[in-house]
């Protein structure tokens, strides 16, 4: 008991101290901060009461049996979760601990959990809100978090039933962004109430102005539209003000009506001061009412105010107790703004802009009498005299030629040894206030006119007849409306001094800016006129003064204020409106821009200026001209596919190969090297920044910082084009773009770069798509996936010096005229490893035929055709120098590619008559077949069939590692692995080949770890009859059987036994035996791990591997569907769909298989034989390219069902859509690790991954 009493006593002491601390804080706030006055002076209670007695009406008292009701006041609690009811039972005991900041004019309502808990209260509040919604366009939720969220949702649902367009404004100060977001999403809040008077310093004001909280969009903000979603504008006059949406300049017009949704703060309704908060007179100084109002007018948010703010009410009248009326509003004349009708402020027109001269010749004249005239000027630093000659008409003249980029230049005459100016020529002021003549590009005054000139228009208001700040506020309100209407969506704040801000509102559509310069009056002890402010440099020159004014409210005005008994009135004041900029600032011109130093600008001052932005307008017009559809597309006309590859892509190793090692990928500090040296490399980086950063952070992304700091990246993009013949016109376009960037303010460099370079990239991409096949040209506008796949194929068809398609021809024709199809980037980008036969012909249909690049496909087929040897297509081409013939499947993918080319190309079957001249005659490698020396493609096909029917057996050249073998071709292969063997089973028609010592199919990983014991051992030899080879063989046999005998004259082949085997018979034997040998029936369960599938191989030396579940039978099913019984085929495809398909690729082995290892690490140096040195390359990792064949097989086998609808296949392509848009390589990888995890040792861009998917999508959309 004693311990319990001790604990209770300690707890009571804690509560007591907590209560006393809360009371102390409340008293200090009420009496010292709010200065409510001493107790007894109308403020009886030392602290505000938490409860109130309500006297009930007689009817209520009679009904309830008592006459008084005690109710609790509402309020707010510091750090209290807004979604919880602080009045509910809780250990925090808010009322007892005095934690509630009470509102004594409100009552805390208990709504309960649902309407049944308090039906009258729910209905009463709902009726009130609905009544307001019927009258007004909008309603405000005051202290929205004080009403339970479920109640507000119910009430607003009824409100929207009677007024669907009712706007909901809410006051939220939960102190937590996530909680604010919860309220916004749950209630559908249209805007949040913000208040400038809640800022605690001018710096706080400036930061919030340009933050998303107050709808700020930074000057020079990059477009949210990704590169590939842009189209060049056809006609500017047809463009809408897309910039009314945040930072969506119409120069980066979207290809579709929809534009990306960006994460944004809830829009703001920004008040200068709200009805229940302190006024400038209470919180700062009455003079701050003017600059504070200007800040709100300068903001990008919707603006609001409270009655009495403009009349300088010293305090806001109570909405509960105030009974006096407002004075009658004064009559106000209609105000017309200036500064928005000049050509510089108008949107750029479509007429062709003249080319800017590099040099301009000026004739300068002196009109008055003189004995000697010379001039000195800024053209040479005011050094040497420019001598004048007297003409016959008595005028003195001199000719001067200067670079236009240096204009304007100031100068002065020295007439008879006296420094002077010519009043008849353009004049300007320098930074010291001296008047000088000036040379400008147009030969007319380009600098602000001298003091006293009336050429600068404005102000919009000069005579003040209204109380308070109403005259200036009228201009500010009109400006705020005009800026919003005309798309001035961007804002930037410069801090000229700790109390002085320069706020720029800019239109991204025409570069016109309006500047608000304000000096606040936050601090009563700093009302002196002295000001040490930075010089303000404008982009352009001052053309119009909207308003300049200072609000003076002295002690006599505040101390002399007397409360009127009938009306609510404001403080007396003096509002001084200036007639010119020169009254408040010194203005001069430098480099075509106005500079401004404030001279007479005391606290409580504002000045609003417009610039004519002549140079900016010219720059903008030049950008518009470059981005014009015809102008940007003209340089792209007739460029070849390999030139497009160089323009858009070119990875690091390709670039070094093409530039003899002189140039690589551009490195962005803080980010790293770009994936590509071409346009797509930087565009991918920009698009990634768009996704990764909020709009206000985007300009500080590493890529944007680098662009702002210098033109190095642009120079790199321009200079590299000199190395690829045929891109001269594109280089010229890009050089013009570079010239624009070099002349623009550095703050705007990322903005213009993001317009120009992605604009050219989008145009080049669009050129490729529109010049592709009809399928691509149409489907790419309907499907982003097809568009992105098609465009990514350009990554692989390129020319390199070290790996032309044919080495000997490249030496005479030039390396750039013999491009080849790269297997993958960056691992296979250059050298002898660039071009692989298997990869090439798996990729060829999607990468070249589907896209309509028939000439490139034809060139590839013919080069490979001429290096057929041993009846095999090379696995590694080596530029037709010394190919490697170690693949059993590459030949059949080659044969399938010939069939596909004939079916797709305009040339058709005529291609089979195309001449062939083998580099290595048949007699050199098989004397028995010498009589079959081919003369054309048809002959070559027959030779391939014949070689396989007879049987193939040879040892690879260069095999081994002895001195007699020369350079070894495979450092890890065992000696027996270099022996290549293929044979035909004459009874079944199946082709067998390989051994346990080599790997002749695409699953070709050779072990290399002596430590783990897998060196020289293939992980997946797949010897025997591989299912995909049988399918490809069947497809080729079926095709030649259907060919006209005039095209393909051969009837059959001679087998190893000397028997003659007709093609039709061979075809039939495969048809008869395939299901018997490959189908694994459910009855075989127990003997094999998986049933209702097709065997991967038949007759493998590792017998258990025959029945392993792998995706290879999908290839056979796609090319030779006639081999498969439909019911069995669909069952097998279902097993693949269930067990093998991952987020991007297909598992190369069933995850339930004992040999499965799904994560590939080529650098694994462990002693585990299964994974050391990546031995599990094809033992589980998920390869992308087989998915294309799976989709094609699925479509063909399900052709009579709803499942064949292409949209059903899209479930397997969700990850591919994202990868193509977000990956820096803008491509699909070779493979992923288990469950779609990234694999560091995979090529991030692989040709066959794209090619098979694109081919499948074309089939599914036929």
TrEMBL record:
Domain Glycogen debranching enzyme central: 468-721
Residues covered by the Glycogen debranching enzyme C-terminal domain: 816-1254
Residue ranges annotated for the AMP-activated protein kinase glycogen-binding domain, each copy included: 362-440
Domain Glycogen debranching enzyme glucanotransferase: 6-165
SUPFAM superfamilies from the UniProt entry: (Trans)glycosidases (SSF51445), E set domains (SSF81296), Six-hairpin glycosidases (SSF48208)
Gene3D superfamilies assigned: 1.50.10.10, Glycosidases (3.20.20.80), Immunoglobulins (2.60.40.10)
Positions of region (Disordered): 437-456
Domain of life: Eukaryota
UniProt protein name: 4-1
Organism: Durusdinium trenchii
